[in-house]
Specification:
480 residues; alpha+beta; Outer membrane efflux proteins (OEP); 2 domains; four-stranded antiparallel β-sheet; two-stranded parallel ribbon; 12 helices
C-alpha cells in the first residue's frame, strides 16, 4: 500500500515539476523543506534520541560495577598510642548483580516499549507537521486567489462608478445610483483590505512552518488512495495510525513497570570483591626496641552478598500500587486515543465529502452567476435593470468564486487530514526528495548496547533554520 502511494505521488510530483517554471515551488518542495528544517520535527527527533538512551540506562543496572576510592587522613587526636598519625588509603570495589527480582528485565522491556512508542510518536509528529504545511500551502493559494478576485472586483466597481457618473451627467441616472455605486466600491475596498491581511498572515504562517518564503506556488497534485467509505478509512486508521500505536506501546511499558515495582520486595543476590590498601607514611610507631612496624596494610575479600528486604515502611507496596494505577491510566488513555482517531477519521471523511459537494455546487453557482451578470448588464442597457441590480449580480458572482476557491482548499486539506489519520501521510509515504529519510532506528541500534562510560555525542548545534532574516510578507500576487 505504501509503495503504491509513494509511486503515485512521485509520478504526480515529477509531472508537476516538469510543467513548472524554474522558480516555481510545488507542494512536495514545501514538504521536503519542512521535513529537513522544521524545528518541531527536528526537536522531536532529538527527543527520541534522548528516549533511546533509557534502554542502556536500564540495562546498566544489571551489569558489573567497578569503583575506586581513595583518601588522605590526619589523626588530629587519638587515645591509642598504636594509631598512625596519618595515612593514605585506597579501595577497589567490584560487584556483579546476579539476581534482582526481575527489576532489570522489566525495566529494559519497559524502556524498549517506550522507544517503540516514541518512534510512533515521531511518525505522528511528521504527519502533524505535514498536515500543517499542506494547510498553510493551500491557504496561500486560496488567499492569493481571493485577493485577485477582490482586486478585480474593485476595478470593475471603479469602472461602474465612472460609467454611472457619466450617465448621471447626461441625465440617464440619479444621485441615488451614484451613491449606490460609491457604497459598493467602498465595501469592496474594505473587503480587499481584509483579504490582503489574510494573505499576509497565510504567507507568514507558511514561512513559520516551511522555513522559507513562498514563491510561485503551483497547484498540488490530486491525493491518491482516498477511501471510498468512512468504515474503510476507520479500519485503516485503527491499523496504522501512529498515535494509537504509541498509546498501545505505552500501555505495554506501563505493564512492565508493575513487574519492576514488584521486584523491590524480592531478594537480591550479587557477587562482590574488595581490595584495599593503606600507607601510614611512616607515622605508625613501634614500641618494641629493634622491631620495625609495617607502614602499609593490604586486604582483599570476595564473596556472595544476599539482600532480603524485610520491612521498608510500606514503600514497596506503594510503588506497586502506583505502577498498577499508571498501568490502568495507560489503558484508559489508549481507549481515549482510539476514540479520538475514530472521530477524527470520520470527521475528515465527512468534511472531504462535503467539500467535494460544495465544489460541484460552487462551480454551478459560478457559471450561473456569470451568465446572470451578463444578462443583467445587457438588460440594463435597455432600461429593464437598475444599477443596483448590476451591483448585486457582481457581488453574487464574486461570492460564488470565493466560495469555490475556499471549497477547493477545504477539500484538499480534508483529504490530506484523512490520509494522516489513516497513517499514510508521513515522509516514508510521500517520497520526498533531498536524500535519505531520517530513520530513528539507526540511533537506537547505535546506543542499544553501549556500555562505555566515556562515550558522548558531538556538541548540539541547530538543525532547524531560522526565519529572522526572511522578508516581511506582502499581499502582492502573481501578474501584478
Amino acid at each position: 500500500m505504501h509503495k503504491r502511494l509513494k509511486y503515485k505521488i512521485l509520478l504526480l510530483g515529477s509531472l508537476g515539476l516538469m510543467a513548472s517554471a524554474a522558480e516555481a515551488e510545488t507542494l512536495r518542495d514545501a514538504l521536503a523543506k519542512a521535513y529537513s528544517s522544521n524545528p518541531t520535527l527536528t526537536g522531536a527527533r532529538a527527543g527520541q534520541r534522548a528516549n533511546d538512551e533509557n534502554v542502556p540506562i536500564a540495562e546498566s543496572r544489571g551489569l558489573p560495577t567497578l569503583d575506586l576510592s581513595g583518601g588522605y587522613t590526619e589523626n588530629v587526636q587519638t587515645s591509642s598510642s598504636a594509631s598512625p598519625a596519618r595515612q593514605v588509603a585506597g579501595r577497589l570495589n567490584f560487584a556483579v548483580p546476579v539476581y534482582q527480582g526481575g527489576a532489570v528485565k522489566n525495566a529494559v522491556r519497559a524502556a524498549d516499549s517506550r522507544v517503540d512508542a516514541g518512534q510512533a510518536n515521531l511518525r505522528g509528529t511528521e504527519a502533524s507537521v505535514f498536515s500543517q504545511v499542506v494547510a498553510a500551502y493551500m491557504d496561500v493559494l486560496r488567499d492569493e486567489a481571493i485577493v485577485g478576485l477582490n482586486r478585480s472586483q474593485v476595478k470593475v466597481l471603479k469602472t461602474n462608478l465612472e460609467a454611472t457618473r457619466d450617465r448621471f451627467e447626461v441625465g440617464d441616472l440619479t444621485r441615488t445610483d451614484i451613491a449606490q455605486s460609491e457604497s459598493r466600491l467602498a465595501l469592496a475596498q474594505s473587503q480587499l483590505e481584509g483579504a490582503e491581511s489574510n494573505l499576509i498572515a497565510s504567507r507568514e504562517r507558511y514561512v513559520q512552518l516551511v522555513g522559507d518564503e513562498p514563491g510561485d506556488l503551483q497547484q498540488p497534485p490530486p491525493l491518491p488512495n482516498l477511501p471510498e467509505t468512512a468504515d474503510v478509512a476507520v479500519d485503516k486508521a485503527l491499523a496504522n495510525n501512529p498515535d494509537l500505536i504509541a498509546a498501545k506501546k505505552n500501555q505495554d511499558a506501563a505493564r512492565y513497570d508493575v513487574g519492576a515495582a514488584k521486584a523491590s520486595r524480592l531478594p537480591k543476590v550479587s557477587l562482590v570483591a574488595d581490595k584495599s590498601y593503606a600507607n601510614f607514611l611512616n607515622s605508625l610507631q613501634s614500641f618494641i626496641p629493634g622491631f620495625n612496624t609495617s607502614q602499609t596494610s593490604e586486604n582483599a575479600t570476595a564473596g556472595v552478598q544476599l539482600t532480603v528486604p524485610l520491612y521498608h515502611g510500606g514503600s514497596p507496596s506503594a510503588q506497586v500500587r502506583q505502577a498498577q494505577a499508571r498501568s490502568s491510566q495507560a489503558i484508559e488513555q489508549m481507549i481515549a486515543t482510539e476514540r479520538s482517531i475514530v472521530a477524527q477519521t470520520r470527521s475528515a471523511f465527512a468534511s472531504l465529502r462535503a467539500s467535494n459537494a460544495v465544489i460541484v455546487s460552487s462551480e454551478a453557482a459560478v457559471a450561473a452567476s456569470a451568465l446572470s451578470l451578463e444578462g443583467v448588464r445587457a438588460e440594463n442597457t435597455v432600461g429593464n435593470r437598475s444599477i443596483l441590480d448590476i451591483l448585486n449580480a457582481e457581488q453574487e458572482y464574486l461570492n460564488a468564486q470565493v466560495q469555490l476557491v475556499s471549497a477547493r482548499r477545504n477539500a484538499y486539506v480534508a483529504g490530506f487530514t484523512l490520509l494522516a489519520a489513516m497513517g499514510q501521510a508521513e515522509a516514508r509515504d510521500l517520497g520526498l526528495d533531498g536524500g535519505a529519510l531520517y530513520d530513528p532506528e539507526t540511533n537506537y541500534k547505535r546506543v542499544r548496547n553501549s556500555i562505555w562510560d566515556w562515550d558522548s555525542d558531538p556538541t548540539p548545534k541547530p538543525v532547524a533554520t531560522r526565519t529572522v532574516d526572511t522578508k516581511a510578507q506582502n499581499p502582492s500576487v502573481k501578474g501584478e
